[in-house]
Amino acid sequence: MPGSGHPRNTDIPHSIVQLVNDEGRLDPPTPLSHLLASIDPKKTFIELVTDDPKPIVKIKSKQEQYKKQKEWQKRQKEVAANNTQKEIQMTWGVDENDLGHKLGKVRKELEKGCRIELVFAPKVNQPVPSPGVIETRLKLTTEKIAEFAREWLPRKVERGVAVLYLKKLDQGGLGKLTLPLPAGTAPEFWPVAMGRLRKAPARCGAGCIRRGR
């Protein structure tokens, strides 16, 4: 944590210091030994804030400092996780059970803050699937992950290999879709389509979902 390496207590290399008081102002120059004698070393410590142009110290609570340290470490882990990108691979012929297992793994990694590259590729020595098979598989996959993930970069499909770039669904995101979308609507256009559907007059036809008033 920034500042955690500052000298404390008897490690402060100055005999005369100025204390930042509770009002945020500087007290008159005081012997460090007097300040050390006035604190409870089990609960507080004295830390050197700066010595340029003169040595200035603060009295800090060990408990509060411990909490700040823990919060800082937690934030650092979150930052590190958000900068982590992992790759999860599967073949085009993946069965439903294995697909569910893989997508469960995707969800867990996204919950940790990671971004995922979900890669579909043909098995070794097997033919590349047709564009129709590729499109169907990707459509099925995006439907299954819609509740917890979204594509944050354009997907890549090249030479029978497809890559979906996924991140955790933002808070306040769409979550589970409850209105029918036009067939073939790509994930990146769901927010627009959903907005239009919500504004459209209610109709009672096929695919219409009645909502309580």
Describe this protein with a few key phrases.
Translation Initiation Factor IF3; four-stranded mixed beta sheet; 2 domains; 32% helix; 213 residues; Ubiquitin-like (UB roll); 5 helices; alpha/beta
Q: What does this 3D model show about the protein?
A:
The protein has helices at 32-38, 62-82, 96-111, 131-145, 190-199; strands spanning 16-19, 30-31, 44-50, 56-61, 85-91, 115-121, 149-158, 161-168. The protein has 2 domains: 1-83, Translation initiation factor 3 (IF-3), N-terminal domain (Ubiquitin-like (UB roll), Roll); 84-192, Translation Initiation Factor IF3 (2-Layer Sandwich). A hairpin with a 2-residue loop joins strand 7 and strand 8 (161-168). The chain has a 4-stranded mixed sheet. It has a 4-stranded mixed sheet with strand order 5-6-8-7, with helices on one face. The chain has 213 residues and is an alpha/beta fold. The radius of gyration is 29 Å and the shape is rod-shaped.
CATH architectural designation of the largest domain = 2-Layer Sandwich
> Which fold name is given in CATH as the topology of the largest domain?
Translation Initiation Factor IF3
Based on Cα principal axes, name the global outline.
rod-shaped
Describe the main β-sheet briefly: 4 strands, mixed
Brief characterization of the structure:
This protein has 213 residues and is of the alpha/beta class. The chain has helices spanning 32-38, 62-82, 96-111, 131-145, 190-199; strands spanning 16-19, 30-31, 44-50, 56-61, 85-91, 115-121, 149-158, 161-168. The protein has two domains: 1-83, Ubiquitin-like (UB roll) (Roll), CATH 3.10.20.80; 84-192, Translation initiation factor 3 (IF-3), C-terminal domain (Translation Initiation Factor IF3, 2-Layer Sandwich), CATH 3.30.110.
